[in-house]
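Progress against Task 2.4 (sequence-to-structure conversion) is shown through the following example record, which the project officer requested during the mid-term review.
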Amino acid sequence: MSYQIVTDSSADLSPKQVEEYGLEVIPLTLTLEGKDYKNYPDGREIGFQEFYNTLRGGKMSTTSQVNAQAFKEYFKPLLKNGDILYLGFSSGLSGTVNSGRMAAEELEEYYPDRKIIVVDTLAASLGQGLLVDYACRMKREGKSIDEVAAWVENNKLRLAHWFTVDDLNHLKRGGRVSGAAAFFGTMLNIKPVLHVDDEGHLIPMEKVRGRKASLDALVDHMIKTGEDLEQQVVFISHGDCLTDAEYVEEQVKKRCHVKDVKINYVGPVIGSHSGPGTMALFFLAKNRD
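Structure tokens generated for the chain above:
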């Protein structure tokens, strides 16, 4: 039985990757200056640079999850051609994957001969995207839907996310740091280094002084915990700070000798909470810590 791999736009995959793998990507929604936009991988409703420039101008963006009814409308046409494997945004950060699960349970009553597997990746941005990339490559190799779903379930807690942000005020709005920590951190040029834990939550791990030190810290964590780095394709996402992303890429290649590096934007849904200047590094490790 053929099957379709589906994800949502918080995976932050590029239009080229989406096209290459024949992926279905469900767009999440953001609200900016009173207007709703769907976050498509190609930025057709709001360009990524436009989005970040608006945030730099002091505007705030909010996001909303996809509800179960919308998932049903996305899934129904796909079920005519085969089964569905949906790899969703971390339940530790959004209720989106639970909406997908509710929709799958309802649709299975009407499509008893079809299988809909929903996997909570416990991942975000190109961490989620990297798991989707592995799944797509396995499908291309001829692996079944059950084999691919099992691999993602068994390996998702090896998917390491290491983040830093340039502006603490966005984390303050999301409750990730206190107002006092954001105020004094900004004054002292303190940059947090964060990761996504085993429950899919974004957790501050350490503080360093200065932007370059925070970028180097991401690579330091990769060296400490990464497995078989020379065989890996590593993903980097950035909040409209390509020069910094290229610096991290250079350090990763120089210090870790990885197979390849792919860079893309932190999309507007994740970027609404992390802000301009976000930098994130994703790879397979012994564990997420």
